[in-house]
Design brief:
homohexamer, Aminopeptidase, 8-stranded mixed β-sheet
Chain lengths: ~180, ~180, ~180, ~180, ~180, ~180
C-alpha cells in the first residue's frame, strides 16, 4: 500500500513475511554477490528460513528495534535497506543495505539510505547513525562515504565467515552532520 | 516516512507505539464522540494504556493478523482505520474506523477505507472484507453503505457497553463486488 | 469421574488430551461424515494432531475461554459438544457440536446442547449463546432450530473448505428466551 | 454442570478460577483451622491470590499434572480434595485435602478421597497414590489410615511453617491394595 | 576456570552445556553401569539430548533451583554430583551423584558430596539435605551412609524403570548433624 | 564453593542473585565512583533492581552469553569483572569491570581480567576479546592498556548518560596476542 518512488522505475516499500517467496527468489539471485560480506544470504536458503529472516525484522519493527524495506525496480525486488538496530531511548541506530547485481549502479541504495537517515534524524530525533561494513566490502564502504559518514574505527578480525576472519569498519553520522532530506521528498 | 495523501491537507500514515502521546491526545478529543459505539476510547485512558492499544496492533501487524493506520489533517491526528482482523489463509478480514469530530464530514474515513480495501483485495488477494458496527452507530453504518457493502445480518444484543447491550450489524464486501482502487491511487 | 447420563445408554463426560487415541479412532469413523462442514476432522489426522486438538480445548478451559465434552454411547465415544468461545466478561459464548454417524438420530446431541445452555445461562450467567453452521449443513442447522435459536444472519461465503467457499449462518439464543434446564437435570 | 453426590446434602464438583470469590470466603472460614498444617490458606489471602491458587490447579489440569475439586454442603463450599501431583507416565500421584470446620466430621472428605482413588486407579491406571501430611496433623493422618494407606516413612523436619520445622509423613496406597470404588458409585 | 582439587589427580568443576560432547562420551562409558538405577543415561543418548540434560541444570542454576558439577580424573570426566533440587526459601535440597566405572572406588564421589554439603549448610544456610536412591542401588546407598545420613523411609514401588517398579529410599542429613567441611577445604 | 585467590586477602568468586543484599550494599558504596561511566549503579538502586541485575547475568550464563564474577577483599565485595557479551560460535566476547574505591589501586581488577582472558582464549578457544570504555574513563582505559589491548576506534558520542553524550572507545585483544595465563594460575 505504502510506496516511496526512488526513480521513475524504482520504489521503496515495506518488506514483510508474507512476501517470503518473492524475497527468496531475490536472495537466490543475490547470493553469490552478497557473500561473503553479509550473512543475509546464508540465513535465507529456503522458504522457511527466508520467512524467518523477514519475521525477525517484523518482530523488530513491532518492538521499534529495527525495520526492513525492499527496493523494487520495474516490479522486481532487487535489494533493500534496513535499520539493523534502532534504540530510540539512546538515540542510536544502525543502517544496513543489500542488493542483487541488478540493483547496483543506479543509485537506488544510496537514495534509499537517505530516506532512512531522514526518517531517523528528522522524524524520530535520533542522534547517531552507524554503519558496519566488512573492510573488504568496497561497495558498502562507498555507500557510507557517499552518505557523508565518518570512519570511527576498524574492529580487527571481528567478523567470521566460512572460517575466515575479516576486519569490520564502523562508520557514523551525527544529527548535526546531516545535510537534510532527499530532494525528491 | 511512508504517507498516502488523501486530500491536499490530509494523509494516511502508519500509527505506531512510539506515537503514544500523540495518540492519547487525539483519543482524549475523540472520547465522548466515539463512545459508546467502540471500546477504543475505553481502552486508552493514559499513556500506558494508549501505548498498549497501539502495541496490540503492532504485534498484530508482525503476525500479519491486523494493522492500524492514522489519518492526519493539517498535521493533526484526527482518526484512523484498521484491519481489526486479517486472516490471509482463509481470505477474510475486517475493517474498522474511528475519528474525532474534526475528522468527520470530509470524506477522509471513506477515502482511507477504500485504500485498505484496495490493499486487501488487490495486493493481498483477500476474498471477503467484513465490517462490524453497533446498530445504533449510524455514522459507521453509513461508511459501510457508501463503500458498497452488503448487510449480512444483525447479531442481537451481542455488544455490551457500560451495562447496556446493543445489536451488532455485520456487513461484507466480496472481491468480485469491489469497484477498484481509489481514483487518486 | 464426572458423567451426566443423557439416556440409559449414553452419557456426557469430559474429553481430555490423555484420551487422544480414543478420540482419534472416533474421528476416523466421523471423518467423511463431518467433512466438509467442520474442520474438526481435518485438524485431527494422527495421534499427535488429535492430541493437539484436545489440548487446545484443555488450554481454553484453563483460561475459561472454551470447553469440550464427549458423548459416549454404550461405552463408545460417538461425538460431542463444545463451547467454541466463552467470554464470561461480555456474557457471550458459542456452542458447537460434532458426531459420527452412530451418534446421530438419537437426540444425544440436542440433549447435550441443552446441558451446555443450562450451564451457560444458569450456572454462569451468560447473556447470549451463538451457533455457527455452514449454510448447507442441514443437520447442524436443525439442532439450532430445535434448541429454539433465532437466525441472526448469513455471512456470505465466509467459510473456506478445500478451495470452495460456503455461506455461514449465525444463530443465537438470549437468556430470556431460554426455556430452562433439561427435564432430567 | 458436573456434580457427584457424596451424601444427600453434599456433592463434589469442579472448582475453578471463576469461583474465586466463593473460594476466598471459604478459605477465610478455614484459615485458622487449616493452619499451620497446610500452606493453602497462606497462599489465598485476597481475591487475586485466591484466584491464582485456583488458576495454578486449572493449569495443572490442562497439563494433566494435577486437579482440584470442591465439596459443597447445603450449597456452601466447605472444603475439597485435589491431586497435588499427577504423573500418568510414571503411574504416581498424590492426593491432598482441606476443609473448614463445618466440613469435618461428616465423612465428606473421606468419601471424596475414595472417588479420587477410584479415578486414579481404575479410570487412569495409576499404580501408586501418595499422601503427605505434617506429622502433627492428626486429622489428615486419620484420613490416610481410613483409606487403608501405608506409612512409607517420615521426612524429618522437612516442612517449614512460620519459622518452625515439622516432620512430614508419606503414606501410600498401591493399585493392588485398592478395595474398589465407593459403594454409591 | 573454577576448580576444586579432590585428590592429586582429580578435581570438581562446573559442567555446562558447551561441554556436551565430553559429557556424552562419558555417559556412553557410564551407560550400562548407571542403568537401571538412574535415568541419567536414558536421557542423554545423543549430542542434542546430552546438551538438553546439561541445559536443564544450567537453567536450574540460573533459578537457584539446582546445580551440577563434573568430576575429572586425569583430565577425563568420570562422573559428578548435583543438587537435584534446591529450595533456599524452605531450607531443603537434594543431592545426587553418578559415575562411570573408572570413577568409582577412589572416594571421589564421597569427597565431592562433602563439598556440596558444606556449600549447602555453611555457605547457603540450608537446613535439610535429602538423598534418594533406588533400594537396590547399594553403591548409592553406601555413599549416603558414609555421609552420615539417616534413612527416613522407603517409598514402596515408587520408581519405574523399563516396566519394572522399584522401592525408593529417602535419606536425610540435618544441619545440626553435619560434621563440618572436608579437611582439605 | 568455588574461589580463585587473587592475592593473600582477595579472591574471585561467582556472584549470583541470592547475593543481592551484599551486592546492593557494595553498589551503594560504588555509586558515585562508577557514575557516570557505566550504568551499573543506575540499574541497581534497591534490592529488587540489584537482584534483577544479577539475574540478568545468571540468565546470560545459562545461555553461555555472558558471565559475572565478584571480587572479595578481606571478605568484602569490592568490585568485579564480567563477560558483558560472549559469543562462542563467532569467537568474540567483551570483558567489563567495575569497583568501589576500596577495590582500586591493588591490581585486583587487572588480575581478575587476566583470569577471564585466560578462560576465554585457552579454555573456550575465543578469538577476539573486546573492551568498551567511555573515552573519559581513564581508569578503565588504563586496565585495557595494561592488559596489552589495542585501540580499534572511538565511536563518536555513542554513549548517553544523564543527557550528555560521550565518545566510546573499543579496544581489542586477539588470541595470538595473548601472553598467557596469570603466573599464579
Amino acid at each position: 500500500m505504502y510506496a516511496i518512488p526512488l526513480t521513475e522505475s524504482a520504489e521503496l516499500r515495506p518488506l514483510e513475511p508474507w512476501q517470503d517467496a518473492e524475497f527468496l527468489a531475490h536472495i537466490d539471485r543475490a547470493r553469490s554477490h552478497t557473500d561473503p560480506w553479509i550473512p543475509w544470504a546464508t540465513w535465507s536458503t529456503d522458504l522457511e528460513s527466508a520467512r524467518a529472516t523477514l519475521q525477525k525484522y517484523a518482530d523488530k519493527q513491532a518492538a521499534d528495534a529495527g525495520r526492513i524495506y525492499g527496493i523494487w525496480r520495474d516490479g522486481t525486488l532487487i535489494g533493500g535497506v534496513m535499520f539493523v538496530q534502532f534504540d530510540a531511548a539512546r538515540g542510536n541506530c544502525e543502517i544496513g543495505v543489500w542488493a542483487e547485481p541488478a540493483g547496483e549502479g543506479h543509485g537506488l541504495i544510496s537514495a534509499a539510505v537517505r530516506y532512512l537517515m531522514e526518517y531517523a534524524f528528522t522524524e524520530r530525533g535520533m542522534y547517531r547513525i552507524e554503519w558496519w561494513n566488512s573492510a573488504g566490502n568496497t561497495r558498502s564502504r562507498a555507500v557510507a562515504q557517499r552518505a557523508g559518514m565518518h570512519l570511527d574505527g576498524t574492529l580487527r578480525e571481528q567478523s567470521l565467515y566460512n572460517g575466515v576472519r575479516h576486519d569490520m569498519e564502523i562508520w557514523s553520522l551525527l544529527t548535526h552532520e546531516w545535510q537534510g532530506a532527499p530532494k525528491s521528498a
